[in-house]
């Protein structure tokens, strides 16, 4: 969940590394640091705080044309100057930046301490610098291979060594690293955002792969062992860089005060992008060739299991409801972070769906690998082309949301829902979903971009409601059936960026305990679509109102709230679509409410405390 950058070439490294780190702060922002290699050796500057603090305190003489940088999301040890990366050996000749977790760090730290090494930090990463420094191998690559052979866990690393001033060495196992090829210069990063200003010729490392990077190019190796010795070894691989179609401007917030606001307003265009070319209006079905499944294989599916984390999990619940309702296949969603630890039964006639914006979410990636190890078929709903999950799965649906930088997901989540809508229709049409219903739903999907635009046009009104909600220390979000995952996602957004306690409940469960917490100080945001449960939902609102609980109702214009109309603190009407597709339109106001509540509270909306965009540690 940290950001890694590296540079080697003809320019001064420090300004380029600082620019890259600024673009990676969504991946971690507890502390930051640089190491550059120049004529006077290896120099390191690091401190707790944001990248701008590091830049302000950087020594004037910090020259060097080789360097590595890091912005941290703390795992081992608090956010302090000492715990910031890069980490070095005692002689200051090796510098390491690391994303991931070394599971056996405690044992390695104890071993190094017993050998007389004085450790300068609380981190797991520092052991790598000492292990590399203590190796007697002739090449830097072999020294790093030996060090990595001692550790257990995940890593994306970049290493600079004063004794090898012509190169950087990087390696990956479970945490992303990308090499960018420039003109007589090379770049390294853990995320495309740090590279697109300089190059769009990229190579993604695979797990278990190492690369040597010089100003003139790169060479890759597979980490393994030397036959007959058990010692770590390296085997050359044929990794090639490829040109990627990326718009660098997509990584700028432009005139917006935050990336989240920019991404909120991009949703209509992004929704059009994910639907484009994938709707078969003639036959009322989806056209998802990337699934790599023909009609016969789709018909053989007997169950669908969706795996995701956070918002991806909640939209997975929306997707499961869609699939079960339209295709009449048992479907459910589960937190990917728990899936593999319960020794799941993997069935050959189950379709597994991995959902991840970044395509690098480690919990989801490990769940995919567990399923495939047991012979299961997995498709992915992923936004980032070339990401680890995209390369691992058997097929899938790219989300075409464009870069999503804000930690709180908006446009990617919306496109995930639309991808599930298309998948559900396609699965339904090879079974019992009629062509009339198929055409009805395809027409509904086609209307969604314009309807999202209509919701966003009410932003000023939503901002007024958000200001009232921001005053509360605790909130309830409630919904039933299709509305419950919407409520869960709404609570998630509030927790993420307002830091208010927000809890989601099924409306029908309120009377089984949570109603005890209703009071004038605890507002309830209720999801009340005009569907078969509208009367039951309105009855529950009366129960809340009778106990003095303030109400904000997200609903449709056709819903009659009766004598509650004069009581609710806010009524938000969204356009109606087909009832199966309404959940995403009911979700959009919740995104806007959370954004404006966080704005009212003065929080850093794009970088909420304790969180990072791409969760690449368990």
UniProtKB/TrEMBL annotation:
EC number: 2.6.1.16
Reactions catalysed, as given in the entry: D-fructose 6-phosphate + L-glutamine = D-glucosamine 6-phosphate + L-glutamate
Domain Glutamine amidotransferase type-2: 2-216
The protein's name in its UniProt record: Glutamine--fructose-6-phosphate aminotransferase [isomerizing]
Pfam families cross-referenced by the UniProt entry: GATase_6, SIS
Domain SIS stretches: 294-433, 465-608
